[in-house]
Amino acid sequence: MADYRLYGRVAGILGLLVEVAGLDQALSIGSRCAVIARGGRRVVCEVIGFRNKRALLMPFGSLEGVGLGCKAEVLESEPVVRPSSAWLGRVVNALGEPIDGKGPLPSGPLPYPLRAAPPPAHSRMRLGGKIDLGVRAINTFLSCCKGQRMGIFAGSGVGKSVLLSMLARYAKDDVNVIGLIGERGREVQEWLEDDLGPEGLARSVVVVATSDEPPLMRRQAAHLTVTLGEYFRDQGQDVLCLMDSVTRFAMALREIGLSAGEPPASKGYTPSVFAELPRLLERAGPGVDRGSITGLFTVLVEGDDHNEPIADAVRGILDGHIVLERAVAERHRFPAINLLRSVSRTMPACNSVNENTLVDRARGLLSTYENMAELIRIGAYKQGSDPAIDEAIHYYQAIEDFLGQRKEECSTLAEGYTQLAALLGLPDPATEAAAAPEDEGAGPTDEGVAMHDASPGLEGGGTAGAAALRVRGRAEDLEKRRQRMTEALNLRRSKKSSARAEAVPEGSHPAGSSPDAPGPSSTGPSNPGPSNPGPGGPADAPAPLEPGAEAIR
Ligand SMILES: Nc1ncnc2c1ncn2[C@@H]1O[C@H](COP(=O)(O)OP(=O)(O)OP(=O)(O)O)[C@@H](O)[C@H]1O
Ligand SMILES: [Mg+2]
Asked: What is the pLDDT of residues 283-300, one digit of tens each?
């Protein structure tokens, strides 16, 4: 069969938009053409719309030398990329071509489409266990699971790129795919060399489309990043997909949409932007039968307005948001995360009871402090007016120090909880978890019985009740409560025995009702508990509940 090619002619050019006549029946949205510029250079373009029987194309490169009457050839092949594990440690452009001067990239065996659909929702695995991201503020307060997608929302210069580089270096994943979309060209090299560094780059593939590149390149760079993530996920790897930034991806979509004649909807963003965002972000997540893509996407919020349309849309798609705040960065606490405005939607379900106890306690203290922050700073709050506020002030600086992390410092998941537990004076979840099976086997401890027996109505009993008590009371609180209860019991007991001494002759006390019999706080594991009053029977039970409960209340 003869080798022939379909082609049309350039019939108009406006800005980045090329109108091609003669191909309207042969092309569809997303098809590609090569426009032959004067001098023979081939400019690959994509069809973004149709008008008056002419195809509207946008270029992946410069339109220099393209004029009316230039040939536009239809490209048959679907845009695909053939990644392989040899791409690790390399930097590529939106077309998958190496741009790091380290020579050609070996092709993998399988073609991966650049614009794949996300796996069907019903066949995807559920999110995996917690992933150690190496940044303690996120590990402890905004725990992230394998396959989760989180947004990092911040204004310009608040620390997004540095935070991403920390995640790329310290996270305990298998592979990183990193998309730098619409970054300033100067910053890319600095970021790769200074922030990411050789050890971060060694387990990453970086896709770069700088701000001066055409919008189609910026859009494709974002899709290529996720495509590479899909390749490694299909190899059964846990992939961390980092993208800086989704906003610049949305801006590229806006340029494309406006050029095609779409009406601007919100802040100049066209309706197709909001349709395309989930198509990109939904591609991250757990795989069908193995592997996962955990996504962390930065969102540049213009003018620090966290409710601007892209931030709003992305927040709705993702499984959590980490808010970086300028006020926090200005007092030089990095990462400048405002915990009270940040959420991980997999919490608290992904945590143990003890971990949630720690997080709730610290969040409670921070929120109490923040509510009063203005008054405290101007000196209008008088120390001693409210014990809860005094306590929040006491812990505030320690929690702030905990949240700060230098970019050279890595902090593991377990270290984070241990440090937080130590500063709050609460049990370390790691130690507690190790001791838990033993405790269960030995029955309730001395303290456990006191908590359980003394306040069944207050705490609801069971593990949840014990956890709630731990939230409220540090070790010294418990000790005080126990002392108060013991005093109340002793008082009650002495009243009883003096009453009995009047009614019964000495020496006729039944077993367990002797004035010297141990109270509930000292019976230890052998204490029969409220539902089993022991050999003395209810009338002579050594540990009446009500006085203890009263004492606690
Ligand atoms: N963990 C950190 N430790 C110390 N300094 C930090 C840290 N994170 C950020 N910074 C400081 O904040 C500055 C800005 O950070 P970065 O470049 O990451 O901001 P950005 O939000 O990516 O900015 P842009 O919007 O311009 O891309 C850095 O130059 C650095 O001085
Ligand atoms: Mg940046």
From this structure: 999 988 889 999 999 999
Ligand 1 centre and the CA of 162: distance in Å? Answer: 5
Contact 84, 108 (CB under 8 A): yes
**Residues with Cβ–ion distance below 5 A, ligand 2:** 160-161
**pLDDT bracket for residue 466 (50, 70, 90):** very low
* Mean pLDDT, range 256-279, rounded to an integer: 91
Write down the residue that tokens 């069809």 correspond to. Answer: 47
pLDDT digits (tens, 9 = 90+) for 198-242: 989 999 999 999 999 999 999 999 999 999 999 999 999 999 999
Tokens, residue 502: 């009047």
Question: In the beta sheet, which residues pair with residue 176?
Answer: 204, 240
DSSP string covering 327-356, please?
A: HHHHTT-SS-B-GGG-EETTTTTTS-HHHH
Q: Which two tokens stand for residue 293?
A: 């893509």
**What's the rounded Cα separation, in Å, for the pair 150 and 302?**
19
pLDDT band at 125 (very low <50, low <70, confident <90, very high): confident
On whether the CB atoms of residues 166 and 134 are closer than 8 A, the answer is yes
Give the pTM: 0.77
End-to-end CA distance of the chain: 93
The pick from 136, 328, 334 for probing ligand 1's pocket by mutation, whose C-beta has the most ligand atoms within 8 angstroms, reads 334
Q: Is 334's C-beta closer than 6 angstroms to any atom of ligand 1? A: yes
Non-local (6+) Cβ contacts of 293 within 8 A are 147, 226, 229, 230, 233, 239, 240, 241, 283, 284, 285, 286, 287
Element (H, E) at 73: strand 71-75
* Ligand nearest to the backbone CA of 405: 1
**Hey, what's the torsion of the CAs at 395, 397, 398, 400, to 10 degrees?**
120
- CA 93 – CA 44 distance, rounded (Å): 15
What are the pLDDT digits (tens) for 300-357? 997 777 788 999 999 999 999 999 999 999 999 999 999 999 999 999 899 999 999 9
Residue whose C-alpha is closest to residue 14's, from 82, 52, 53, 66: 66
In this structure, what token pair is assigned to residue 426? 């609460």
